[in-house]
Structures are given as structure tokens and as C-alpha cells.
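Model the whole thing, not chain by chain.
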Amino acid sequence: MGKTKLGSGSHLLPMPVVLVGANVNDRPNFLTIAYVGIVCHTPAMIEVALRKGRFSSDGIKKNETFSVNTASVDLIEATDYCGIYSGAKVDKSRLFEVFYGELKTAPMIAESPLSMECRLAKVLDSGGSHEIFRGEIVETYCSEEYLTDGRPDLGKIKPIVYDGSSSSYWGLGESLARAFQVGKDYKP
Amino acid sequence: MGKTKLGSGSHLLPMPVVLVGANVNDRPNFLTIAYVGIVCHTPAMIEVALRKGRFSSDGIKKNETFSVNTASVDLIEATDYCGIYSGAKVDKSRLFEVFYGELKTAPMIAESPLSMECRLAKVLDSGGSHEIFRGEIVETYCSEEYLTDGRPDLGKIKPIVYDGSSSSYWGLGESLARAFQVGKDYKP
């Protein structure tokens, strides 16, 4: 069968790349992560996992809000910058044009094609290096130029994904097939 | 600013696509999902969210093991098939060549480029439609033909990702930049 054992690391390949927004000491801060996933459909819930002690964590806990902003090819340098430098050392409040939604304290990035505004639902200890923030997605904001027939268009958004194996960002190729269609008549 | 509100849905775009493996009634079953994410680095932990009452859920709880298998372009039809049809109705135990690792009860897909074998750490109620299974990744198996210099190579693996906006699968394009490098000298 020719399988090689790679050990116990995290090999989810690829992972989405997002910028998590939080107000810290009343100033917007943005942190790039790939440990993110949807965990519930109804209501829509998302989790982001942050290494314990991250600068943003206290802000999320204090305000009980955060945002999740899509990283795109156009934002690749700023995205990487927000993953390298901590808000404890550099001021990231002026990197982007910031806007707020109905929760008032979850800063979002105007330049990001798509932003999700989240109300903190739960803080969970992973039992290891990371703390998990579960949020209910209360609203999603998409810039009009990235919509087609009222829906976000990945071909326009050009999101980037993270390859943890080579520590690099990848772009998307093309839409290959319709889900819940292409395998309908599959015969094993 | 031109932002359109899309409501409270889950707009994480794109999401990874994986086949979750579990033994149910002592037979391997595989379920395709996109609600998956890494939640801890040390130890490596992954979460998968399944709609409550899924056929695989009881098997995961009983054996306290599951697997996460990468969906690739080559497996796109079988992947979609495993997302459409429940194990309660069709027998998915012979769709793939199945192998087991050290946990003995987490079935993995030989044809999948990369499989993570997980020990169940926690079952969490999302508070809504989904149940969350957190697992510690105890081992990762990669077929040799997908490795370059001993590491998984995304260019060879050709994973697919899910676009929930158009309900379609996308392939990856190319590696765009090194993470923790391209934004090092970024000047806002």
C-alpha cells in the first residue's frame, strides 16, 4: 500500500486563511490564522483557535465579539504581516479601513472581500496549546464587486489557502464540479 | 464602502473537504464534510462537526476513534457520493480499500493521499444543529507518491475545497508565496 507515517502533527491540507478582528484596549487588532472552521449550520457558528496568551484573546473575552475576514490574493502581504507581528508589539489598527456592524465592537476589514461578524458563544480549552473561541455568525458583509447574482463569487474573491506542509499560501484554480451532483450516479 | 449584508449564514470560503471514517456496527463507513478544522497545535487536535443523528456519530462514540481523509480531484465522484448518501441506506464499506492503524477501529482510505487517525477526545454540543467531535491526531499516513522530500506535496495531492456559495468543489491553483516571509517587510 506504500503509506508513510508522518507522526501526530496537524496535516489538514489546505486550510482556509482568515484575519480575526478584535478590539483590544479599544483599538482594532487583526490576527491571521488557519485554525478555523464552521461547527454548526443552524444557527451558523464558527470556531477560531488561538495559541494561549495571544494579544487578541483578552479583547475577544472582554467584548464578547470578534470578526472573521477572508484573506485574498490582493491582501496576501498584509495578511502575512498580521500573522508574523503581534498586536502587543506593533499597532495594526491602521493597516486597513475598519468598519463595525451591529455588535459595535467587532472590527472588520473593508478591503477584505467578505467579513463575518461574530458574537462570542463559548471559550473552550483545547487541553493543549490553544484556546478555542466559538462565535455565532450574526451578519456577513460582502463587497459588492465580489458578488455575482447576489452571492459571493470565489472567482472574484480569490481567497488564499494555507499549506502547512510547505508553509505557503496557495490560490484557487477553478470550479471543478457541482457538489451533491457529480457523485449522484457514482458506481463504485 | 459598498458592503452588502448576506445574513447570518456560514460563509467561510472555501472550506477543506474531507471524508470522515468511522466503524459503525463493525463496518467501515465514510462521510464527506467541510465543517472541519484544526483546533490545537500541541497536541495536534482536529474537530469535525456532524449534523446530529448522523449514521457515523454512534460509531465514533462507541469506538472513540475516527479518521479524517483528504478528498482529492481523483476521488471527487466518490467523495460527493459519500456526502449524498447516508450509511443508513447504502453500504459504503467497499467503496475504498480500507486500512487500519494503531487505534484498530478508525478505518482509513488507502486511495486518499493523506489520512489522519484520531482518538476521540471530546464530544461537544454546538447548541444547534451539529455535534462536534474533537480528536487527537495520533498518526498521519501519506501515500509515498504524494511526498516530496518526505513531506506531503499539495501539487501532487491535488486536494479539493468546497465553495458553499455555489455548492461546488474547486481545485487549487499554485503556490503564491511563503508564509511568514512575504509580509515580513510589509509597509502599510
